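One such given next:
>
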Amino acid sequence: MRFLHTSDWHLGRSFHRVSLLDAQRAFLDHLVDTVRDQRVDAVLVAGDIYDRAVPPLSAVELFDDVLHRLADLGVPAVMTSGNHDSARRLGVGARVMGRAGIHLRTDPADSHRPVLLADPHGDIAVYGLPYLEPALTREEFAADRADHTAVLGAAMDRIRADLAERPDGTRAIVLAHAFVTGAAACDSERDITAGGVEAVPAEIFDGVDYVALGHLHGCQTLTDRVRYSGSPLAYSFSEEHHRKTMWLVDLGPDGTVAAERVDTPVPRALARIRGGLDDLLADPALERHEDSWVEATLTDPFRPHEPMAALARRFPHILSLAFEPEGGDDDPLASYARRLRGRTDQQIAEDFITHVRGSAPAPHESATLRDAFDAVRADTVRTEGA
């Protein structure tokens, strides 16, 4: 059976205030064309269909259109909710849509109930795991801790138990939205840290034939059976060097996996350029970036006069401008931002306590901070999902 694995559409998202609606429409057109031309048997979408819990009407219309087109082709789709989606909103009408072959998996309680597909070699059980916020789903799965590894591990135990009751030779696929150890992140993914532990080991998915992952925006192969499709479009300049693709996956009768990447349309190339203003305006090597979306970092010791206007004359699609003067940090805001880059909320709070008090927080104080951050995250997810 042939699957098309994709994720992280983020319908409704913009790129530095530039609308991506047309680019997202072009991607969905490409997806439908790929399904038809490559004779795809089923589509797998591993979360973050929308960019926010209450998406704009234009994004909902795009989603509605692609669902109708897949249903018209008679190709089933299994889709899960990600940490950007409102699971409850996305799941409205799921039972009715399931009759048309569009299977939305947004309820953690149903994660061990697969969509059953079949080819001449037998059944394929497709399990859709929505994003599992540990503080909200620990009780559902009777997990011993409120962290991603414990909750996802308990969910996978349920899946393996269900699979064990099915006929011998039943192949299994799992969709999951998580940060798996060994994968590379970028700036455009929302932090899903909980309890100071965000990554889960790839071994947590042992026992199934293919794992279609979502959440990270770079296409990645963790093992032959565990892969991220990545986002179909770039959503931050940190994705400058990403090759945006989907996975075309052939699942053999004995569970063997063969996968190849299918490129997605690129609306405009990304470029990060750095240097003094005069150099950026004159360097002939930068000619290739004149039609790109550009992020420029100026290293002049003093801020030039109206640099954005000057750069825009050469790079009309420049979207971001930063200042990092060589020879020192004369911009305290920029320096502060660099110090915070890559640090978790927990680490920032503990650093603040150390700075103010002169000593690091005690273990019980760190635990109190961790509980507070978990409560805020849970409340945010609960509010967005309402």
Remarks:
- Residues 345-384 form one domain.
- The longest strand covers residues 122-128.
